Amino acid sequence: MWKCTQGFALASRRPLLCITTFPIHQLPSRSKKTIPSSVHLGYPPMQQRGQCSKSREISYFDAGFWISKLSWKRASVNTFRCLVGCTMGDFSALWTLQAYCPTLGVGAAMAISMASGLTSSMLLETVLLRLGKDQLTWRQAATTAAGMSLVSMLAMESVQNVVDYHLTGGMVNLQDPGFWAAAGISITAGFFAALPYNYARLRKYGKACH
Q: Membrane-crossing residues (predicted)?
């Protein structure tokens, strides 16, 4: 006869322990290769070796990929920080070149302003990483800032300059309200040009541009 006794649960979330016992004279012979199930904890049986399912890597085309509010919020903050740094260097360089090198071509001025925007963005991020909540050393902060996504910054700078050139011809006129309106449009365009890439990179790989 088989006799089954139930013990008490070790914790409220654990299943009851069921131990199978039997009289000594009815113990199975050691010569037999069958092993009775003596202890059952209520968990599903382990999968056979080689049958473990691998976690599917999240895809850009998944239905839920683009609906993470937390990722959109963090990506927006990262993109805004990048936008501030890029815009400061970009417009400062354009104004300086226009004031002191008026004969310089528009193409060259745009290229220099883009390089200035990338540099100012990295410098700003270095300062924020050093003096902000991260409290990195200057060397660590500079290394981290240099490792930011250049794709994101180049996309932002390119769209900003294309829109600005289309609206103002690349001219900086601080007294003209039209210049500020065009600047607002170009800055907004640059922000939304980089935002989806920053979101996708953060959502899929857990990496931010900052």
A: 179-197
Residue 184 included in any domain: yes
Residue 190, in any domain of the structure: yes
Residue-wise over 160-196: b if at least 16 C-beta within 10 A, else e?
Answer: bbebbbebbebbbeeeeeebeebbeebbeebbebbbe
Residue pLDDT, tens place only, 22-39: 454 555 555 444 444 433
Q: Is residue 187 part of a domain?
A: yes
Q: How many CB atoms lie within 10 A of CB 107?
A: 10
Closest of 160, 190, 147 to residue 93, by C-alpha? 160
| pLDDT for position 147 | 72
Give the whole-angstrom CA distance, residue 14 versus residue 42: 9
Distance, CA of 100 to CA of 87 (rounded, Å): 20
Contact 159, 189 (CB under 8 A): yes
19 φ/ψ angles, rounded to the nearest 5 degrees: -115, 125
> 28 in a domain, yes or no?
no
Tokens standing for 178? Answer: 């039209």
Per-residue pLDDT tens for 134-163? 788 999 888 878 777 788 889 999 999 999
Q: How far apart are CA 120 and CA 123, in angstroms?
A: 5
Whether 168 and 184 have beta carbons less than 8 Å apart is answered as: no
Domain ranges, residue 130: 69-205
Four-point Cα dihedral 95, 100, 104, 107, nearest 10: -20
pTM of the model: 0.66
State the total domains in the chain.
1
Give the tokens for residue 13: 């979330």
